[in-house]
Amino acid sequence: MATYDFDLFVIGAGSGGVRASRWAARYGAKVAVADDDRLGGTCVNRGCIPKKLYAYASHFHEDFEDAVGFGWDKAAPKFDWSRLVAAKEKEITRLNGIYAKLLDGSGVTRIDGRATVEGPHAVKVGGKSYTARYILVATGGRPHTPEIPGVELGIVSDQAFDLPALPKRIVILGGGYIALEFAGIFTGLGVNTTLVYRQHLPLRGFDEDVRKHLAVEIAKKGIKIRAGANLSKIERKGAALLAHTDAGDTIEVDQVMFATGRSPNTKGLGLEKAGVKLGKNGEVVVDEYSRSNVESIYAIGDVTDRIALTPVALHEGMCVAETLFNGTPTKSDHSDVAAAVFSQPTVSVVGLTEEEARKKFAKVDIYRTSFKPLKHTLTGRDERTMMKMVVDAATGRVLGCHMVGADAAEIIQGIAIAVKMGATKADFDRTIGIHPTAAEEFVTLRDKVPDLVPKAAE
After folding, report:
1. Calpha distance 197→200 (Å, rounded)
2. Which residues are catalytic?
């Protein structure tokens, strides 16, 4: 029987890689994890955590304004970008330390440096070679940038958290979750923000009602929207930048940010050398157990281009550990995964969109409501919340729930449990709501939206 330096060698110490390492070590495996960056990966260092912290910061300007409606004197505090950046950095450093303690406490060997795959059981880091019974690739994704003249003058999300100064004017290219979230952040911090995207609505792939509602609400925040457009060129004009669109107009700004998607981070890993099959976007092609076509090499998280969410990578990592080291072959479950976009207002969803449901089921019932939140009856702010439920007409099972509004992610997390369990509309209806809350609307939806789908199309 072959002997190896490690039972499992994990490439990438992001959330998924760390979770897989710890779980495998818990089951008695000898594990090593290598990374050439800070522990925690994109989520901790350049994604979920700092982005949510910055979103909190950007909300305060509205909170100060809204307080007047509740009897507080008007306040006009000043915002200090450098203090926010420093506070963020302190928190991330703390989290890096926690990840290190978790790995060390689990007996996982940490190796600093960029790892490359040399073969089905071989890895090299900094000129030193290691052998492993199994290799797990958990290298995440990287920002994609468009191929246009002047692209080097712009930034991507990785750089947005640590700008030396807050720009006064910014153009953000993209209509996905990263673009929407940063548009809200910069606008909330006082930056004149223009959002440019090619589609007629933002958030392609989300429910159409969600997309329509969000487009209206973000415009109310002061974000300038250029839908159906793209950037064709960027050039410098003194200290400013000129962002040219394919519609023929020019936007003068201080900063251009590209939020045009992310690509699996497989370039230069040496996977081809080991015979690992990659997909058209460079992703590692895996089966339901996260195993590649090479029996000893697995991959999880964004590098597989399945569902690019941190909790999904965590789940996949645990499934791999269960499969390889606990004698329990476990498939990753990617059905009914809840998600949130921390735009302003927040979007959160679970289950099928109306469009997806109509393709899979003979008939669906739609329940939808839009209302002004109680808070804004005193603030006077023109903001509306939207909630939607998609139901299988034949069985009453709730197929999907969608929300745009304050606390959407906190609300949908609970709703997701019900959807995952196969709850029916009747189950929701007999649940007594908590009053007064926005969440209670999900259990008081009574009137179906008239079905406008022609019977011949059903």
Report:
1. 8
2. 435
Residue 451 pLDDT: 82
Q: Which domains does the chain have, with CATH numbers?
A: 6-142+263-325 (3.50.50.60), 151-260 (3.50.50.60), 345-457 (3.30.390.30)
Read off the DSSP letter of residue 228. T
List, as one string, the DSSP characters of 253-319. Answer: ESEEEE---EEES-TTS-TGGGT--B-TTSPBP--TTSB-SSTTEEE-GGGGTS---HHHHHHHHHH
Q: Indicate the residue type of 370.
A: S
Nearest of 305, 311, 352, 357 to residue 333 by alpha carbon? 311
Contact between 403 and 411 under an 8 Å Cβ cutoff? The reply is yes
Alpha-carbon gap, residue 424 to 120, rounded angstroms: 47
Q: Distance (Å, rounded) from C-alpha 291 to C-alpha 299?
A: 6
Closest alpha carbon to 210 in 185, 174, 180: 180
Beta strands, E only, 73-191:
109-112, 115-119, 122-125, 128-137, 141-143, 155-156, 169-173
Look-up: residue for tokens 């910014």? 170
User: pLDDT tens across 218-270, in order?
Assistant: 999 999 999 999 999 999 999 999 999 999 999 999 999 999 999 999 999 99
DSSP, residue by residue, 6-67: EEEEEE--BHHHHHHHHHHHHTT--EEEEESS-TBHHHHHHSHHHHHHHHHHHHHHHHHHHH
Tokens of 60: 């305060």
* Residues in the chain, overall count: 458
Assign 3-class secondary structure to 62-105: HHHHHHHHHCCCCCCCCCCHHHHHHHHHHHHHHHHHHHHHHHHH
Q: Measured between alpha carbons, how far is 452 from 458 in angstroms, rounded to an integer?
A: 10
- Number of neighbours of residue 279 by Cβ within 10 angstroms: 13
> Using one digit for the tens of pLDDT, what is the confidence trace for 365-423?
999 999 999 999 999 999 999 999 999 999 999 999 999 999 999 999 999 999 999 99
DSSP state of 130: E
Collapse the DSSP code of 184 into the 3-class scheme (helix H, G, I; strand E, B; otherwise coil) and give the result.
helix
Residue closest to 218 by CA, chosen among 341, 343, 340: 343
What CA–CA distance (Å, rounded) separates 26 from 4?
A: 19
All residues at 6 or more sequence positions from 194 whose CB lies less than 8 Å from its CB, including other chains: 169, 170, 171, 172, 223, 224, 225, 226, 251, 253
